[in-house]
Write a structure and sequence with these properties.
Elements lengths: L1 H15 L26 E10 L2 E2 L7 E2 L2 E10 L25 H71 L7 H5 L6
Antiparallel strand pairs: 1-4, 2-3
Length: 191
Amino acid sequence: MRNYWILVAAVTVTGCATHRPVASITPAVTSSPKPLVREAGATRVVETRYEVRSYRDPDDPRVRHDAHAVYRATRVPAQIEALETTPRNKAAPISYAPLPPSAELAAEIATQKEIGAELRAIRSRMASVEQQARAQLGTLADQTEETVNLRRQLEEERTRVRELESKVSEHVAAPPAMPSPQMASGTDPKW
């Protein structure tokens, strides 16, 4: 314990001793000038209003939010009306100064135009063939209907002829029961 008290006394004496401050002098830096930061132009905030319809909360379906507005703040230059702008119709279109024409590009464009013309011709021919096919189909449908009607009529006529033939054959096969009085007398009837 005695060693402990000696240690506490030594730390207290050295800790309370005053130290002389040491001054350090740094040389002035003159080799590089301070960088200049340009002052930003004056700006203002413009709010854009967006209407939001009512909706149910996706986290809690029991909660329904009413329709309200949401604002978006955009920072624009303060003198936006004074900025020099030109109307859109005054600006030169991109095609105003096209790239210099090349022979390969011209040949490709000519080929594409020929292919387009051929496709249009094929399309018109296909349209005319389709119209002809539809007309022919209509004609064939009418002719088919006529043929079906004629076959039905022919079958009806054949049935009637068979019935008449069977009646005639029955009539010829059956002898008359009594000769008629006119035939028996042998004289022609007088009307």
